[in-house]
Fold:
Amino acid sequence: MARYKVVVSDQVFPTVDVERELLAEIDAGLEVADGTFEGVAGLAADADAILNTYFPVQADLIDRLSRCRIIARYGIGVDNVDLAAAERAGIIVTNVPDYSVEEVAAHAVALILSLLRRIPEADRLTRAGGWGIERLRPIRRISELTFGLVGYGRIARRAADILTALGGRLIAHDPFVAAAPGVPPLVALDELVATSNVISIHAPLTDGTRGLFDAQLLGRMRPDAILVNTSRGPLVVLDDLLAALRDGRLAAAALDVFDREPLDPSRIEGVPNLLVTPHMAYYSEESLAESQRKAATQVIKVLMGEEPDYPVRR
Structure:
């Protein structure tokens, strides 16, 4: 029998060979749960560690864990883990905050450029036998536009580098970032919303940011503005955004994340100027492998009595 037991709560990767090989080096066995509450609770009750993706690790599960020392998330956000319950139980929570920075930044910029250059419309037009630019007006020069970044962490900074290289003017809102060389002008959220031609959301999901972009805030945006969200779906009140697009109060929006996933396509049927992707911004083959390796490494460090690289603090 292995010295340690590690449970994957919800398996979303093609294989868990990366984790299994790494954990075997410390004599830790890896078992994969079925993603249901009873399945996870039954398998993880005597586990030393949990590797988690989307499964909600809440107090009712944590109370059943008799030996668990670490809950290691494969991703960046930890809104599906009850941090207070984990702290009460003496369980360390970790994430992998730097594993898909390049991918999400690239995806956000790709969505932005697709909407600014009206590429989806141009594709439909050409396939339908149309030609020319008359039905694609107006398109603005990128260097004449203001890009507002809501949140200025790793991903936003990478996106900012790309947008700056294209000539865009940047502003940012992040209450946890101080002015410094290389940081765009930091402004209040109301100012960012009122003045930006493009707003790209890169904030975590917290009690303070849930539903941030509601009808009231969306109503303060320029009617010719674009909203892009590759962060967390519940930051945007989807029904309010869809209403703004239907009424022409907003030029366009692009979403990779949604308040409820998978998205019910009937919710967006017939909504104009909306570009959607299926929560894929994080993905590349390299980013998946990196996430698996780094999450497993956090488990190894904690079980070996070492400090993890990415502890999550409340």
Observations:
- Residues 101-276 form a domain with the Rossmann fold fold (CATH 3.40.50.720).
